[in-house]
Every structure is written in structure tokens, then in C-alpha cells.
Amino acid sequence: MRTFDLAPLYRATVGFDQIADLMDRVMTNDTGQTNYPPYNIEKTADDAWRISIAVAGFADTDLSVEVRENALIVTARKGEDDGERRFLHRGIATRAFERRFHLADHVRVTGASHENGMLHVNLTREVPEALKPRRIEIATSPVSDANLVEGSAVN
User: Fold this and answer.
1) Which domain holds residue 19?
2) Residue 99 and residue 45 share a domain
3) Is residue 138 domain-resident?
4) Which residues contact 62 (CB under 8 A, 6 or more apart)?
């Protein structure tokens, strides 16, 4: 595993702590993280995304989607089974899970839907008006008569 020294980043920048934290999080080798359930992240527009999670076997009441501290947290807890069903083969996993997605600043969850065994979570980037680029008019100062120097023609 490679290690990176982020000290030059801290010495030369102010306010970029989130980038260093993101790099630490990505470079950390999480052996405990599973690939269950499978998911897709697709870009639907310039400032919009959709996360689709395969949640076969879960009802709407078993799923929970919440946003906390710039993180999208999707959890599923299967209700109690009635015990009358006997499986000869059980290949559809309905075990409980929690999946976290770290969101960038100003990314908001706009909705979630559950259809055909897929949970779709829609996200958009909403940049506040105060942070959008704006054009500043440059004012020209009027020339006053006091600043004029009288000149006469030479020759």
C-alpha cells in the first residue's frame, strides 16, 4: 500500500481540508466493506445524478433513505419472516445493509423511488446564488475640470 505525505498540501493551502479528508478516505483500505447490495451511479444531466440500488425482496417499509452531514445513508431492515416458508434454495439475499455515499457540497437529494426491485435516489447540485459567478461593473470616474491642465499649442 502506498502512503502519501499531505504536509505540502497543508502548508500551501487554506480551507482545502475536505480534499485531504477525501483522499484519506479513498486511500484507506476498507476490508470490511462489502459489495452488497450492488448499485449504479449514473449522470443524468450536467448537475444531476441517480444512484440505483438493487433491493430485491425489500418492501418500501423496509427501506430508509436519509441525509446526514454530507452523507447519503441507505439502510434496509427486513421485517420478521413468518416462519412458515421453507426454502430448498435461497439465492435472493434479503439481509440487512447500510450503504453510505459521501456527497459534495451543495449536492441535494431531490427524491427517491422504489420500483421493480430497484431503489432510485435522485441528486442535484444546487449552487447558492451567493456562490455563483457574477459580473462586476467597473465604474469610470468623471473627469473634473480641476484636474485639467491648460495647454497651449507649441510652434
Assistant:
1) 1-33
2) yes
3) no
4) 76, 77, 78, 79
